[in-house]
Amino acid sequence: MPETQATHVASGKVRELYALDDERLLLVASDRISTFDVVIPTDIPDKGRVLTGLSGFWFARTRQIVPNHLLALRDDGRSTECRRLEMLPLECVVRGYITGSGWKDYLATGEVCGHVLPKGLTESERLPQPLFTPSTKAQTGHDENITRDQAAELIGDRFEEVERTALDLYRFAAAHSESRGIILADTKFELGLDADGALVLADEAFTPDSSRFWPADRYSPGRAQRSFDKQYVRDYCESVGWDKTYPGPELPEEVVAETRAKYIEAFERLTGISFDEYVADPEVVLR
Ligand code: Q0Z
């Protein structure tokens, strides 16, 4: 029987969200890529499939930590049917290494989101322990780091449960990634509540768009690290003198091919599953 038409409900930089019915959403990952916060006009073929497959892989393996929104992976490999939740009004960020806005905040204040850090840390250094460093959900512009007290104000008495869940998820994914030669420097995900008020992992999980993955064999603290997936794009964008404002440059075909290969390498290293197998049958990542 044909299904009812999906209704578009939201656009992200590289994903689209549709309502299937009152209880279900369809999350579709495009092949668009963004860098320096700008969507680049050239697609990276299969990027959306890689990210959808990785999220599915992690959802299947973290169910013992927290249930998730995934109902089904569609045959196209880029569309996820999911439960419609009441999303918590904050981004859950966990950092195992000090980089990005965490490094900026540390340099300015010695703290990140109210966590007082040891003196003398160097850029990209591993933290003594992973930190829950939540941020606001900016509708436009950048998410802003917030303190534990500000987070507790936003989500109420579930703060400790959320923090514990976020740290457990990070520790699981970081340990798995490390065993595959990849450092999970930090990650961002979203939690929601189901109709019973239970915490549920939603959106995407431990993808290159929501996490910093660094190749472990080239890790060297004291400087910014090269990105596993986007480095060729960044290098190309820098080489043409782009000013990092809209619109970004078109990418030449070798940069597209190198970048596509890095996404597929990330998928295969992290999942241990060949990408061709995934394309033939997306649900392989769930088994
Ligand atoms: C996710 C987003 C995207 C634009 C809402 N399971 C869920 N229940 C309720 N809401 C969401 C989810 Cl995943 C939800 N977003 C982020 C994704 C395009 C915005 F693909 N917004």
Task: Describe, in plain words, how this protein is organized in 3D.
The structure is a single chain. This protein is an alpha+beta fold and 287 residues long. Helix content is 31%, strand content 24%. The protein is built from 7 helices and 15 strands. The protein has helices spanning 47-61, 100-109, 148-155, 159-179, 231-239, 253-271, 275-280, and strands spanning 7-11, 15-19, 24-29, 34-35, 38-39, 70-73, 79-83, 86-87, 92-97, 111-112, 115-116, 126-132, 182-193, 199-202, 211-215. The strands form 4 sheets. Strands 8, 9, 12, 13, 14 and 15 form a 6-stranded antiparallel sheet that branches. A 5-stranded antiparallel sheet has the order 1-2-3-7-6. Helix 1 packs parallel to helix 6 and helix 5 (231-239) packs antiparallel against helix 6 (253-271). The longest helix is centred in the middle third of the chain and has 21 residues, at 159-179. The chain is globular. It starts with 6 loop residues before the first strand and ends in a 7-residue tail after the last helix. 39% of the residues are buried. The mean pLDDT is 97. Bound molecules: ligand Q0Z. Ligand Q0Z binds at residues 10-12, 15-17, 25, 27, 69, 82-85, 87, 192, 202-203.
